[in-house]
């Protein structure tokens, strides 16, 4: 699976990169690395993915919220609880803003 994810990131990079597909692929690779216990490798990729998604604005708002939650999970997994809490709070505020406070999506 890791090889396919690296290929996806590279493919999007060769085709101009820095678009929604590239940032999604980078985030997916980061999530895979986290699931394999390779948190220190995943953190910079997740940060890069999130920064890119946020730079795309409303086009990627939902993806950016997922990226925020994933980054929070990475910080939590690495024992960086204050940073994890800050990112979880940020993502909850974003979900509430997007879907409404009483939504099951938030």
Tell me what you see in this structure.
By secondary structure, the chain is mainly alpha-helical. Helices cover 77% and strands 0% of the residues. It is built from 5 helices and no strands. It has helices at 2-14, 20-35, 39-55, 61-77, 81-99. Helix 4 packs antiparallel against helix 5 (81-99). The longest helix is centred in the last third of the chain and has 19 residues, at 81-99. The model has no long low-confidence stretch (mean pLDDT 91).
Beta-strand content bin: under 5%
> Would you report the number of β strands?
0
Largest sheet: none
What is the mean pLDDT?
Answer: 91
Estimate the helix proportion, in percent. Answer: over 70%
Structural class: mainly alpha
From the spread of the alpha carbons, the general shape counts as globular
Secondary structure layout:
Layout: H1 2-14, H2 20-35, H3 39-55, H4 61-77, H5 81-99
Helix pairs in contact: 1-2, 2-3, 2-4, 3-4, 4-5
Brief rundown of the structure:
This protein has 106 residues and is mainly α.
